[in-house]
Amino acid sequence: MSTATTQVRGSFPAALHAEWTKIRTVPSTRWLPAVVVLLTVGVGALVDAFVAEGQRREDGAEYDPFTLVHYGVNLGQIALVAFAVLAVAGEYGSGTIHASLAAVPDRRVFAAAKLTVITAVALVTGIVSSLACTLTARVFLPAGDISLTTAETWRTAFGQGAYLVLLAVICAGATFVLRTPMASMGLLIPLILLGTAALTAIPGVREAAKFLPDRAGQRIMRLHDFNAYELDPWAGLGVMALWAIAAAATALIVVRRRDA
């Protein structure tokens, strides 16, 4: 233990290596990124293959194929939330947080390393899932729905990857504050799946609800607005990025000031 502590103490690269080791050796955090990809791509492919024709007839001129291309994000993000939460809260629940902080006395280094590794894993997951969704849609959607040579196709693909990365950072930051998996997932999953969607249906509230992270961030994955209260695609992604920065900054402050 003393040797490991000496190796990690004060070294950000060593802290990064330690956090990467934790994530790839714990079964839950090791497999959840793959689950994100499977759910996102699999559900998207099913929707592309079996829903697109009917959706096109129903929507007419308002038909937006990209709502189908990236539809799997609605389920895949649940696994991503679980990954980010468990990557942080797992140590608090098991008590190994004490050993981690003994090895990395500078708590800002510890938190920054964990957030960096979570972000990197989410980035790879987002890139793989967004490319796979786009290429799969090109196969399963009706001819002419999307083209691999248009800016809109690659804007929405980039948007899916960016959304997943920012979501992971927000969830990890929130978990540093809440600490336990039950409290974190109990708040984040219902809020993302139901809470913000419900708020957008309430007159007088929906104007502000467009600034919530998931509502703002998901806009870049579509061509058309769902309603008159949505932000522009890039503005929405920028708002979500501000939420992620705030979550990461809060995590660094909380870890430094609170006892383990």
Report the count of strand segments: 0
Basic shape: globular
Number of DSSP helices? 13
First and last CA, distance: 19 Å
Alpha-beta content class = mainly alpha
> Would you tell me the overall average pLDDT?
90
Strand content: under 5%
Radius of gyration: 20 Å
Q: Low-confidence spans: pLDDT under 50, at least 5 residues?
A: 1-7
Helix content: over 70%
> What composes the largest sheet?
none
- Secondary-structure element order, N to C: HHHHHHHHHHHHH
Question: Any descriptors?
Answer:
78% helix, 260 residues, mainly alpha, 13 helices
Set out the fold topology.
Blueprint: H1 2-8, H2 12-25, H3 27-50, H4 52-59, H5 66-69, H6 73-94, H7 97-103, H8 107-140, H9 151-178, H10 181-199, H11 206-209, H12 213-218, H13 233-257
Helix pairs in contact: 2-3, 2-8, 3-6, 3-8, 6-9, 6-10, 8-9, 8-13, 9-10, 9-13
Commentary on this structure:
It is a single chain. The protein has 13 helices and no strands. It has 260 residues and is an all-alpha fold. Helix 3 (27-50) packs parallel to helix 8, helix 9 (151-178) crosses helix 10 and helix 9 (151-178) runs parallel beside helix 13. The radius of gyration is 20 Å and the shape is globular.
